[in-house]
Specification:
It comes from Candidatus Methanofastidiosum methylothiophilum. The protein is built from six helices and nine strands; from the N terminus they run βαββααβββαββαβα. By secondary structure, it is α/β, with parallel strands linked by helices.
Length: 177
């Protein structure tokens, strides 16, 4: 058993790809979905990865951080958010984007234990969205004055911002700590 743990969850697969890349490069790290983690007592480094979903981490990641809140105060922590909006923006008076999502994770973790953080790109494929997410995207485009219908989603391009080189930079920093 290793003393490093990568905890993640994924909605459409981008965060899982990044978790695999980290696992392949780091080597000595256990990789588990948040719902699979029953204990973190034997780990000294916890890496937490979440997609930006509806401008916040996935519920399973928030639940993991709450469940292990006390134990996380005794661990080194690295965090990453997977988001196609790598910076930060404002929409309808609220902050959105990857850097904003890092801030959400920071608020739920012991800040003094965070040794590394980054925003990594993912894939947005409107052709595979579930019904709820299709409606959210249509609503968003209508709200910003670019009306579309649900059937138009099949014609939207796939946005692929997965970047193995950027992920490798995160991995190299992770290996150095």
């Amino acid at each position: 058993m290793t003393n490093n743990l990568l905890v993640y969850d994924t909605k459409y697969g981008s965060t899982e790809i990044i978790a695999r890349w980290i696992s392949e490069e780091v080597g000595n790290i256990d990789v588990k979905k948040a719902s699979e983690v029953t204990s973190i007592k034997d780990y000294s480094l916890i890496v937490i990865g979440s997609p930006d979903y509806d401008d916040k981490p996935l519920v399973s990641i928030s639940e993991f951080m709450k469940k292990f809140n006390k134990e996380l105060k005794e661990k080194k922590i690295a965090i990453f958010v997977v988001c196609n909006d790598l910076e930060e923006g404002e929409y309808k008076g609220k902050q959105i984007g990857g850097k904003f999502n890092l801030e959400i994770l920071r608020r739920e973790l012991p800040k003094e234990n965070i040794i590394l953080e980054d925003v990594l790109g993912g894939v947005f494929n409107p052709k595979i969205l579930d019904e709820n997410d299709q409606e959210r995207i249509v609503s968003f485009f209508n709200e910003i004055g670019k009306p579309i219908k649900k059937e138009d989603l099949v014609f939207m391009p796939i946005m692929n911002k997965l970047d193995r080189a950027k992920c490798k930079e995160f991995i190299n920093k992770l290996k150095a700590v």
